[in-house]
Amino acid sequence: MANEIRDASIGRVRLATSDGVVLELERLARNGKFPSKALARLALARLKDQGVEIRQTCPAVPSVDTGMLVLALGSRDRLDVATVDYSLGETLSKLGVDVISPRKKGGLTVKPASSSSLK
Length: 119
Description:
The protein is of the alpha/beta class. It has a single domain, classed as 3-Layer(aba) Sandwich (Rossmann fold), CATH 3.40.50. 45% of the residues lie in helices and 13% in strands. The chain contains five helices and five strands, in the order αβααβαβαββ. A hairpin with a 5-residue loop joins strand 4 (99-102) and strand 5 (108-111). It starts with a helix and ends in an 8-residue tail after the last strand.
């Protein structure tokens, strides 16, 4: 997916996630049921293999979605967010953040920030 994100983007791409996402994946890898447990382990391995930056939000921001919002809106640099969470994507788009999501039949789609955003 990292290569697909780079291919779908214009310019330099630096991949990052929040510590809240990592904590949630670690919890699922320990306590989740199959296939969640296996997928969480795979995701953690991919984060490490791809050298994805882990940005700190916890414990100040206990909610993973809120942490993603804080990172996206609080960054000095332009930041796009990749997510499968429809509600989070809609909120980010309305707040002026481009959202990258997987397509059902493969590949990625980039949803530009809403024209009514705060930009």
